[in-house]
Design a protein that fits this description.
Blueprint: H1 14-17, H2 29-76, E1 90-98, E2 105-115, E3 121-122, E4 126-132, E5 135-140, H3 145-149, E6 158-160, E7 168-169, E8 174-178, E9 189-196, E10 201-209
Antiparallel strand pairs: 1-2, 2-8, 3-7, 4-5, 4-9, 6-8, 9-10
Length: 210
Amino acid sequence: MPGEHTRSGEALSPLQRAGDPVDGSHAGPASGLKSGRQGRRAPMDDRALSHTHATLLMVALTIILAALVLLMVLAMIPSWSWAEPALPPIVITGISHASGETGKLTYASRVFLLNNGSTVYENDCLKAIFYRDGQRTATVQTLNGHLLISSHHYGVKYIEGEGCRSLYWNPGEEMVVDLGDGKLAPDVMVTVEIVDKRTEKVISKHSTRA
């Protein structure tokens, strides 16, 4: 209105008289509304961030608990459910029905024995008992090749191989026991027991199909 002046004495323009501040010391209603919205936005952002952190924490805890439960279940399952039983220290690796000299089928009954363990045996302290379908068929009184030759042995022709040449049967060494023609027919179940003659205890037992 005519005659209105600012504090410095200058005349007010119509726009200034409508309510706009001159020196910026007073804000209008719109300015107050904006600042109020900005003040309320920060707590809402904090709540959203906290919710995200809580969700991630719950997912991580769920994964950890699931892993612990899986480990407990695996620990309770017996190992034999998927593992094959361990082999005895002395095993039958093969049975040949062919002649060692001619290669012809003679039902030669040549049994291959392997020291499959980690023990070094004095072969003269061992004897081998062979079974055919559960019936005892032959006994080899010594597994030392040199001593067998000079002894009275029945039910076996000879033994040969690196496991019977010296005084000791070392791990990984094999020997062949020839029981004689016709002793072990094809498809019979053959079992060998290795006995320690000093204690008369069976130290190994293994069966296979001829």
